């Protein structure tokens, strides 16, 4: 289950940014996961909730936005949308596809509750 190690990394990034900003707590985390990233969104959300216990992000809502997969077909020279790796080109049914987008995962937004002014 690589989602657990991804969740540890996400919460580490979020907590680091929150501490740097002087946050009292994190209220929302928005993630973007590409359709070709081999990440189960629901599992990642659950793992983030578990990993965030005892951190500034413990009560944060975690939102996941899905990003479609895209690939360049060398056979028909078209950029096409893909739902998963291994699918043929929807235009020509060829398999000479190079992924161009949708294989990444990233933290896109962190909302914090500011700490007390110094």
Topology:
Layout: H1 2-20, E1 23-34, H2 41-51, E2 61-67, E3 69-73, E4 78-82, E5 97-101, E6 105-114
Parallel strand pairs: 1-2
Antiparallel strand pairs: 1-6, 3-4, 3-5
Helix pairs in contact: 1-2
Shape: elongated
Question: Which radius of gyration do the C-alpha atoms yield?
Answer: 18 Å
- Tally of helical segments: 2
CATH-assigned fold name of the domain at 3-68 and 103-114 = hypothetical protein PF0899 fold
Q: Low-confidence parts lasting 5 or more residues at pLDDT below 50?
A: none
Structural class category: alpha+beta
Average of the residue pLDDT scores = 94
| CATH secondary-structure class of the domain at 3-68 and 103-114 | Alpha Beta
User: Which architecture of the domain at 3-68 and 103-114 does the CATH hierarchy give at level 2?
Assistant: 2-Layer Sandwich
Number of strands: 6
Percentage of residues assigned to helices: 25-40%
- Strand % is 35-45%
Following the backbone from N to C, one meets helices and strands in this order, namely: HEHEEEEE
Main sheet strand line-up: 2-1-6
N- to C-terminal distance: 42 Å
For the sheet with most strands, the description reads: 3 strands, mixed
């Amino acid at each position: 289950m690589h989602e657990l190690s991804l969740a540890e990394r996400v919460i580490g990034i979020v907590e680091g940014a929150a501490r740097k900003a002087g946050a009292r707590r994190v209220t929302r985390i928005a993630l973007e996961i590409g359709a070709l990233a081999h990440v189960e969104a629901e599992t990642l959300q659950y793992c983030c909730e578990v990993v965030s216990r005892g951190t500034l992000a413990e009560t944060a809502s975690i939102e996941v936005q899905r990003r479609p997969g895209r690939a360049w077909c060398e056979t028909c020279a078209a950029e096409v949308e893909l739902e998963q790796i291994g699918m043929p080109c929807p235009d020509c049914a060829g398999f000479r596809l190079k992924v161009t987008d949708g294989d990444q995962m990233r933290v896109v937004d962190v909302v914090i509750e500011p700490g007390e002014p110094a």
